[in-house]
């Protein structure tokens, strides 16, 4: 049942054989009912952390969060989180429960969970425990808070952005009362940690329904983050965006590389993501990118200047933005280039990358710095200048990338 992996079934059996109830719970139950492959399986159990430890005494365990009742067991090298049934205490800071109590009752553990579709458990035989109507909400494609949405969001405001995240990833609507609470309480999100907000936001942005959710809840999203985000028309472009996080961040936080950078910095995104997203935004607004529509020499110069990954992302972002009339007028020129034209430009770049003999950077030249020194050029910046000159000669087709011909040219 449920396509439960063998190691999960075995862990449930071990706990049960030791006399403790044990269930797979949360996201994995939701995803397997939906026919999606869960990325991890979580287990909840009546066993206390020490009792769980004793059951898995022969296995390697990692005490991930013993005081919150979580013990990670390595089963065939797969880390499996096993958490004792838990009741969360007051959230006086709207962030962390002041304390947690362990429980022997599964229903109490399910009641602390955020949404009905996340509050189901399934045992080894595939028997479903679903006290809040999660299964029906899955069928109706609804995100609904467990209990009163206002209370649950006041306890932990991260749940507000999580509601939007699950709607975007699953393509579900948010049930009306829950949606009202999302809209009226969104600003509370700002009191939660920016790192945790950002994790939810990245999952939301990668969701297939990000465009629909963000256009509908744009105002709530701005309140959640405490910043302006892209206009609705631009957010709608996410519909056609490839599943690439920096590119999608470029749409979401833009227009303008500066806004992309500041938005991501504010949310404490990692530096590589900030760099890549800012670069994509910058390139997408750079008139020079039109070179990819021209010829291979122009494409190779762009490859030389930006590298394959950043260049292709910049072109793709440009292509997505070209679907919007207002974006194109603002940044490039009125000369309309279609998304298809940009996609063809991108393919042409990729064909260059596939060529074994392609030469668009210094290291692909048939000569290197050592060769230049041996012709008598003194060590120093001149060597680099000569290599760059040769590279330009090769790219523009004046000289083939042939060692003899290049050496002769240096002399
Ligand atoms: P994903 O597929 O992205 O991992 P998930 O449903 O597993 O989705 P997690 O953030 O990994 O989501 O959380 C695991 C489970 O823990 C959720 O399904 C939910 O039952 C519960 N949970 C997580 N965060 C909260 C929260 N802030 N409030 C209440 N319950 C939560
Ligand atoms: Mg999970």
From TrEMBL:
<dbReference type="InterPro" id="IPR043519">
    <property type="entry name" value="NT_sf"/>
</dbReference>
<keyword id="KW-0547">Nucleotide-binding</keyword>
<keyword id="KW-0808">Transferase</keyword>
<dbReference type="GO" id="GO:0016779">
    <property type="term" value="F:nucleotidyltransferase activity"/>
</dbReference>
<feature type="domain" description="Poly A polymerase head">
    <location>
        <begin position="23"/>
        <end position="144"/>
    </location>
</feature>
<keyword id="KW-0479">Metal-binding</keyword>
<keyword id="KW-0548">Nucleotidyltransferase</keyword>
<keyword id="KW-0819">tRNA processing</keyword>
<dbReference type="GO" id="GO:0000166">
    <property type="term" value="F:nucleotide binding"/>
</dbReference>
<comment type="similarity">
    <text>Belongs to the tRNA nucleotidyltransferase/poly(A) polymerase family.</text>
</comment>
<feature type="domain" description="tRNA nucleotidyltransferase/poly(A) polymerase RNA and SrmB- binding">
    <location>
        <begin position="171"/>
        <end position="215"/>
    </location>
</feature>
<dbReference type="InterPro" id="IPR002646">
    <property type="entry name" value="PolA_pol_head_dom"/>
</dbReference>
<protein>
    <submittedName>
        <fullName>tRNA nucleotidyltransferase (CCA-adding enzyme)</fullName>
    </submittedName>
</protein>
<dbReference type="Pfam" id="PF01743">
    <property type="entry name" value="PolyA_pol"/>
</dbReference>
<dbReference type="GO" id="GO:0046872">
    <property type="term" value="F:metal ion binding"/>
</dbReference>
<keyword id="KW-0460">Magnesium</keyword>
<dbReference type="InterPro" id="IPR050264">
    <property type="entry name" value="Bact_CCA-adding_enz_type3_sf"/>
</dbReference>
<dbReference type="InterPro" id="IPR032828">
    <property type="entry name" value="PolyA_RNA-bd"/>
</dbReference>
<dbReference type="GO" id="GO:0008033">
    <property type="term" value="P:tRNA processing"/>
</dbReference>
<dbReference type="GO" id="GO:0000049">
    <property type="term" value="F:tRNA binding"/>
</dbReference>
<dbReference type="Pfam" id="PF13735">
    <property type="entry name" value="tRNA_NucTran2_2"/>
</dbReference>
<dbReference type="Pfam" id="PF12627">
    <property type="entry name" value="PolyA_pol_RNAbd"/>
</dbReference>
<keyword id="KW-0694">RNA-binding</keyword>
<feature type="domain" description="CCA-adding enzyme C-terminal">
    <location>
        <begin position="260"/>
        <end position="408"/>
    </location>
</feature>
<dbReference type="InterPro" id="IPR032810">
    <property type="entry name" value="CCA-adding_enz_C"/>
</dbReference>
């Amino acid at each position: 049942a449920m396509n439960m992996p063998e190691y999960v079934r075995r862990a449930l059996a071990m706990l049960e054989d030791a006399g403790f109830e044990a269930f797979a719970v949360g996201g994995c139950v939701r995803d397997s009912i939906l026919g999606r492959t869960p990325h991890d399986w979580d287990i909840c159990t009546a066993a206390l952390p020490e009792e769980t430890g004793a059951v898995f005494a022969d296995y390697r365990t990692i005490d991930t969060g013993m005081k919150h009742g979580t013990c990670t067991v390595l089963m065939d090298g797969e880390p499996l989180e096993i958490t004792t049934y838990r009741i969360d205490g007051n959230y006086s800071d709207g962030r962390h429960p002041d304390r947690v109590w362990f429980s022997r009752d599964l229903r109490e553990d399910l009641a602390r969970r955020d949404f009905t579709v996340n509050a189901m458990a399934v045992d080894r035989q595939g028997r479903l425990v679903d006290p809040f109507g999660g299964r029906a909400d899955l069928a109706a494609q609804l995100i609904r808070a467990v209990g009163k949405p206002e209370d649950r969001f006041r306890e932990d405001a991260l749940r507000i952005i999580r509601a939007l995240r699950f709607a975007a990833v699953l393509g579900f609507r948010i049930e009306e009362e829950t949606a009202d609470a999302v809209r009226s309480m969104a600003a509370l999100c700002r009191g939660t940690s920016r790192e945790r907000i950002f994790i939810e936001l990245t999952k939301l942005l990668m969701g297939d329904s990000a465009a629909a959710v963000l256009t509908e809840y744009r105002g709530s999203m701005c309140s959640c983050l405490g910043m302006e985000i892209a206009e609705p028309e631009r957010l709608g472009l996410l519909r056609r965006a490839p599943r690439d996080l920096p590119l999608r961040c470029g749409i979401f936080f833009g227009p303008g590389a500066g806004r992309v950078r500041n938005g991501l910095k504010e949310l404490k995104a990692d530096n590589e993501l900030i760099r890549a997203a800012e670069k994509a935004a910058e390139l997408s607004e750079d008139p020079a990118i039109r070179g990819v529509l021209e010829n291979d020499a122009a494409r190779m110069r762009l490859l030389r200047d930006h590298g394959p990954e950043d260049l292709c992302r910049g072109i793709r972002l440009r292509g997505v933005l070209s679907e919007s009339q207002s974006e194109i007028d603002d940044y490039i020129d009125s000369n309309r280039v279609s998304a298809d034209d940009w996609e063809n430009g991108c393919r042409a770049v990729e064909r260059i990358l596939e060529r074994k003999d392609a030469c668009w950077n210094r290291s692909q030249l048939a000569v290197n710095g050592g060769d230049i020194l041996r012709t008598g050029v003194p060590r120093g910046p001149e060597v680099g200048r000569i290599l760059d000159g040769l590279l330009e000669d090769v790219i523009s087709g004046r000289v083939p990338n042939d060692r003899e011909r290049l050496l002769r040219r240096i002399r």
